[in-house]
């Protein structure tokens, strides 16, 4: 298949890119790594009249490490680069762990974090990870900029809080407190496939081994990345024993809303959610300790 005809613009600056998006609105799409947009155009599922190519725009692909352990990642940073960033692996090891499950190395070499998040595929790993890390997204337009929490960014399958004239410019990830353990685990039919179920877990322990904070978020578990706040809340104040984790996983199974696919029925996905959540929590607990 070949795409429908389109106009192509290659701005050199963010200001120029935002000007083009403001002028063309919903008729225009930003082109990042092209790993989702180009196949969709070739199948004519997407037929943007205008492409605003971000690949020549300066200043959108930096990884900034804050002295407090926070991260600010430019939207055009390639997934492979984040996966290999030693400082990010130290401050937020869950990023590399989850990115390793995103497609194949060739796709991660081109695909960007901003493109992955803007695409908002509910089966995608990184939106769930961003939810668990309480990340926020810097959105820019000619009108100004605003920060949107991950929890408010994903509105539905392939739908986000981005306005027609806005660009996702930067992903901001807060530092993880001391004695915090993280884990991302998924079950997929084949390596590199979208997951039938994936779970991101973040737990913080005090010096005595009692859980002081916990967050759980799942991919392929509903119309958006799905947090499981009720399940996570039950873990706070516990020692994360096997019983505590099994009880939380049972609640999480009720909080997710899987849609099913050719590979797995919603009931099987729900079952997987409990199994994967328990394993991810066990791993995160071990790492926190
Ligand atoms: C065979 C295959 C397997 C894959 N498997 C997985 C997988 O297992 N897990 C997974 O998560 N993904 C998977 N993907 C998708 C891949 O991760 C894509 O790279 C990613 O979803 C899109 O990133 P991109 O940079 O290529 O964005 P593009 O394809 O260029 O853009 C995607 C969408 O985001 C918009 N966009 C891009 N950048 C911005 C921005 N800065 N601001 C606003 N809007 C923007 C575009 O206009 C477009 O609508 C797979 C892709 C392929 C081809």
Give the structure's gist in a few sentences.
By secondary structure, this protein is an alpha+beta fold. It has 12 helices and 14 strands.
Features:
single chain, 289 residues, four-stranded antiparallel sheet, alpha+beta, globular, Uridine Diphospho-n-acetylenolpyruvylglucosamine Reductase, domain 3, Enolase-like, domain 1, binds flavin-adenine dinucleotide, Uridine Diphospho-n-acetylenolpyruvylglucosamine Reductase, domain 2, 36% helix
Describe this structure in words.
The chain is α+β, with helices and mostly antiparallel strands and 289 residues long. It folds into 3 domains: 7-53, 2-Layer Sandwich (Uridine Diphospho-n-acetylenolpyruvylglucosamine Reductase, domain 2); 63-173, Uridine Diphospho-n-acetylenolpyruvylglucosamine Reductase, domain 3 (2-Layer Sandwich); 180-288, 2-Layer Sandwich (Enolase-like, domain 1), CATH 3.30.390. It is 36% helix and 24% strand. It is built from 12 helices and 14 strands. It has helices spanning 14-24, 37-42, 79-84, 86-91, 93-99, 105-110, 113-119, 125-132, 150-153, 229-235, 242-255, 266-288, and strands at residues 7-9, 28-31, 50-53, 63-65, 71-74, 136-141, 144-149, 154-156, 159-160, 167-173, 180-187, 197-205, 211-219, 226-227. It has a 5-stranded antiparallel beta sheet with strand order 4-5-10-6-7. α10 (229-235) runs antiparallel to α11. The chain is globular. The model has no long low-confidence stretch (mean pLDDT 97). Flavin-adenine dinucleotide is lined by residues 29-37, 39, 75, 102-103, 107, 111-112, 114-116, 118-119, 124-126, 162, 167-168, 194.
């Amino acid at each position: 298949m070949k795409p429908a005809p389109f106009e192509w613009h290659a701005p050199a600056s963010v200001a120029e890119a935002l000007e083009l998006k403001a002028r063309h609105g919903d008729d225009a799409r930003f082109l990042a790594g092209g790993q989702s947009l180009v196949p969709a155009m070739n199948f004519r599922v997407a037929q943007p009249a205008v492409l605003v190519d971000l690949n020549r725009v300066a200043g959108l692909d930096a990884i900034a490490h804050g002295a407090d352990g926070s991260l600010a990642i430019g939207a055009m940073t390639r997934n492979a680069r984040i996966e290999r960033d030693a400082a990010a692996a130290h401050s937020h090891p869950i990023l590399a762990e989850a990115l390793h499950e995103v497609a194949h190395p060739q796709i991660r070499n081109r695909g960007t974090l901003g493109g992955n998040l803007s695409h908002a595929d509910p089966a995608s790993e990184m939106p769930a990870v961003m939810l668990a890390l309480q990340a926020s997204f810097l959105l820019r337009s000619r009108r100004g900029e605003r920060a949107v929490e991950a929890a408010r960014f994903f509105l539905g399958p392939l739908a986000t809080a981005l306005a027609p004239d806005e660009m996702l410019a930067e992903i901001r990830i807060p530092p993880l407190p001391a004695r915090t353990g993280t884990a991302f685990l998924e079950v997929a039919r084949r390596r590199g496939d979208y997951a039938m179920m994936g779970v991101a877990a973040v737990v913080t322990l005090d010096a005595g081994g009692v859980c002081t904070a916990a967050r759980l978020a799942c991919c392929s578990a509903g119309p958006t990345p799905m947090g499981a706040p009720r399940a996570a809340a039950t873990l706070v104040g516990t020692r994360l024993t096997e019983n505590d984790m099994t009880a939380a996983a049972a609640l999480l199974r009720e909080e997710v809303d899987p849609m099913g696919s050719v590979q797995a029925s919603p009931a099987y996905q729900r079952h997987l959610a409990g199994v994967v959540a328990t394993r991810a929590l066990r791993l995160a607990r071990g790492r926190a300790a």
